[in-house]
Fold this sequence. Notes:
Chain A is mainly alpha-helical. Chain A has helices spanning about 5-20, 40-55, 65-70, 75-85. Chain A is globular. Chain A starts with a helix and ends with a helix. By secondary structure, chain B is an alpha/beta fold. In chain B, about 30% of the residues lie in helices and about 25% in strands. Classes of the chains: A mainly alpha, B alpha/beta.
Amino acid sequence: MIQSAEVKDRIREYVLEEFAKTKGIDQITDQEVLTKNGIIDSMGIFRLVAFLEETFNVRIGDEEITHDNLESVDAIERLVLAKSKK
Amino acid sequence: MAYVLQQLLSKSAKAYPDKPAVWARGKSITYRELDERSNQLAHLLHQRGVRKGDRVGLFFPKSVESIISMLGVLKAGGVYVPLDPQAPADRVGYIIGNCGIRILITKSEKRAELSADVQGLLEACVLVEGEGNGSDLIEWSRLAEFPASHAPQVTMIETDLAYILYTSGSTGRPKGVMLTHQNALTFVEWCAEEFQVRSEDRLSNHAPLHFDLSVFDVYNTLEAGATVYLITEDLALFPTSLANFIDTQKITIWYSVPSALMLLLLHGRLTVEKLKSLRVILFAGEVFPMKYLRQLAEVSQQSALYNLYGPTETNVCTYYKVERERLASMDKLPIGIACANTETFSVTPEGRLAEKGEAGELYVRGPAVTYGYWADSEKTHKMVVPNHFQENFEEKMYRTGDIVTVGEDGNYYFQGRRDSMIKSRGYRIELGEIETALLNHPGVREAVVLAVPDEIIGNRIRAVVAPHVAGSLGVLELQQFCASRVPKYMIPELVDLYDELPKTSTGKIDRVKLASEPVGAGRS
Lengths: 86, 524
């Protein structure tokens, strides 16, 4: 079973390294809305989903790729934990 | 007949006062409210010194207030300048200085991003969100103090400027394309006729407001007394949500860049059922790969599909209505024929009209064509040139820089660019602007920016950089440096570091060789 803290750390690190930093944003909070300031764009969403599927060995369907599920580090963690319990 | 854009609103506000005009994030306003709020904003702006021709910036995320602001500025006689809410402060600051914006409509959070120098250029900010101090920070709620029933008296004619849209500039700074009421109305009137926009229609607005695709969404809605649904980022990025939105809001007319439609096709779980209300689908801004267009045609059997073409300087100048029966055999989508009240011709490098099948640059003349670029007569003279095909009086035409051929079917076909401008997600990008940004980095000796073709988004951006001192620069550092100077869609996604860039025999950087080398081929 993956530990919650570890999941969150890996998501935060990925979002920060892959999206935020290249756009000049050095830190993000776990509640920050990632789509609001263009941290993640439309192609980025699918790179993020591919990362989650690979890293946490979960399958995320197109219908689960929604704002509610992916809007922040907190939301992404909830999605991953809910999926990995199944 | 309307000769200034705000007359489209007055007409519909009289005919359909209680109909929703604009919808965003679950909230909508009626035509009466849009008319009244924009009258009030016009009075407020007038009181703050906005006079005919003055530029007013709009710097906040897309919302109902965006449309009120556009109309309010026009009613005050002003010229609105939509600023990309996601652009770096440095670029927004440049535009504010470049076109002399003294009043900015914004929100506290966005205003705080601007440097003290730029804030110093502003006499006042109208805040759609956030707290004001009454003198130079004016809260939105203050609109209530102004007359709602009429706009201030301003004499305006169709050749007055309505808005300025900034696009990427090859010399390192964005350039402001000036558009008049007549420029916009020429296009709006053609669309109203061609697409038969009616008051029952429900239009989507996918493009950002600083992008000229939005001109159709907003003003053809007002022209017809229809309703426009603004697609905000919480919807735009999520294909299944967007597909459900089209279904539940019963959108009848859609307009976007092809890449947005391709993401819907790939991940939106589109079905014929979900798209049943769509009667017109318009796309523009980039090439639509035939493979995806065929898929779109399959799930939207009741929709008319149109490929629209035209740079911001002409809005749309040619169009092609997709002939479904030709789709299976077609290998390239035409950009079609000239719109009404617009003349286009293809000119060879020798300056004569191109023959059928022969490549030429597409030129455009007519009332849709821009005056040129704000405060940049040099660039204007390069692109808006005398029409040398008639010698008896002076007239201008616009050089698009796009190379086209005329096919056997009489349609224009896009072949490529004359210069190094590229498209990514429909955005115009001058590679030179990114090169200039990179060269401003003190550690960069040489930099070349190349386009890497991508099936979905058109092009990805790759930078090849040689530092002054080998090993002294990191990829992330360069991306961050660009992030403070260019919009997010222009930040190089791929960066290769070389000790030295390859040269041609004349000592120039060998772009052709670099483009042919695999990504990541740098030696350092």
